[in-house]
Specification:
2 strands, mainly alpha, 9% strand, two-stranded antiparallel ribbon
């Protein structure tokens, strides 16, 4: 049998470009499978997402390590801030307490003053109403023989630069 060769013309499109080729013989060449671009694109996107995820994880780790490095100084700062605030709050509370205590003391002293004034006024009224001064003068003149001082009985003393005078003996009669 005679082997016949057949020539066939075929047209294939690959990636948008048109290509023509001939097939010779009785066996047809196996055509290359069209690549699955969707699968390649999905694989590429998955790899990019994986790289992005790893990059984010590295950034998170760096930030955590940075936070751990600065945490000692931040804790020291916060401790100092709390101590200062606590000191100011304690001083403020103590001052408020002192003011309240002084106000109570002032109130108690004012109450004592009012009581003493009332007692003093009461004693003055009692004394002033107990005896009439005219009756006291009359009784002193009649019963005790007292009289008003005459001009010759009054002795004047002059005081020097001192604002006071000491008496070291009896006052002379004349």
């Amino acid at each position: 049998m005679e082997q016949r060769t057949r020539r066939r013309s075929a047209t294939a499109q690959r990636g948008g470009a048109r290509k023509e080729y001939y097939i010779e013989g009785n066996a047809v060449r196996r055509m290359e499978a069209v690549p699955d671009y969707r699968r390649e694109r999905e694989e590429r996107i998955r790899r990019e997402q994986e790289l992005e995820r790893k990059r984010r994880q590295r950034a998170v780790r760096r930030n955590q390590q940075k936070a751990l490095r600065t945490s000692k100084s931040y804790v020291a700062f916060l401790t100092m801030a709390v101590l200062v605030f606590g000191t100011f709050a304690g001083v403020y509370i103590k001052l408020q307490s002192d003011i309240t205590a002084r106000m109570r003391t002032i109130s108690a002293l004012e109450s004592q003053i009012a009581d003493l004034k009332a007692d003093n006024d009461e004693a003055y009224k009692r004394i002033s109403t107990a005896k009439n001064l005219d009756s006291v003068r009359q009784e002193a003149m009649t019963e005790l023989g007292m009289s008003y001082a005459r001009e010759s009985q009054i002795v004047y003393y002059s005081v020097g630069d001192d604002d006071y005078m000491n008496q070291y003996g009896e006052i002379p009669e004349e």
